[in-house]
Amino acid sequence: MENKLYKYELHCHTGCVSRCGRVEPEEIVKLYIEKGYDGIVVTDHYSPMTFEPNWCPQKQIDFYLSGYRRMKAEAEKSGKDFTVLLGMELRHYGTANDYLIYGIDEEFLYSAGNLMKPWEKKIYSLCHSKGFLVFQAHPFRTGIRRCATSTPKQYFFIIYPPFKIINHLFPCFPVLSCTILLLHCIPYASVCGLQQPLQL
């Protein structure tokens, strides 16, 4: 059996859910199929900026899932072998830190309550108990408090072969991020983070 190299986008925001997103879900699917990707993980922002003020996020999960659902429908409509998976980029109240969470499903989002209220350690424990993966998003941005060696050991994640890290926007970051990952055990996933068509 021949080994296959799978090419997935792991950090994508849709124009209908994330404020920074500029591309509608259907167009995102077409762009990534054109570029030869096998799939994508939709990681729309789950943050105080995503939902209406004085809201109850569990009542707005249908809105939060709309980008993912539209992308999934478009992938099925295309007839191509293209996988759309659900993830999230979570930000707690009162911080600029964001965390990419992989492995979640719709049932989890409907039942979890307001995920912005529990602080990092509690969220990590919840995710760990469910088998989810958690990575700190864009740790090199100004004003971000990076996870460091003082962080409890359960926060540490190691990216190792056969994973190839690609960052289309800042090609120097993968080497830097892997070095920091190995030296300081900082969880980090370096990916495109599509917001506009020109980034792909």
Descriptive notes:
The chain is α/β, with parallel strands linked by helices. Helices cover 28% and strands 14% of the residues. It has 5 helices and 6 strands. The chain has helices spanning 25-34, 61-78, 106-111, 120-130, 173-184, and strands spanning 8-12, 39-42, 45-46, 83-90, 99-102, 133-136. Strands 1, 2, 3, 4, 5 and 6 form a 6-stranded mixed β-sheet that branches. Helix 1 packs parallel to helix 2. The longest helix is centred in the middle third of the chain and has 18 residues, at 61-78. The protein is globular and about 45 Å long. Mean pLDDT is 77; it is low at 149-192.
Features of the shown structure:
200 residues, alpha/beta, 6-stranded mixed beta sheet, 5 helices, 6 strands, 28% helix
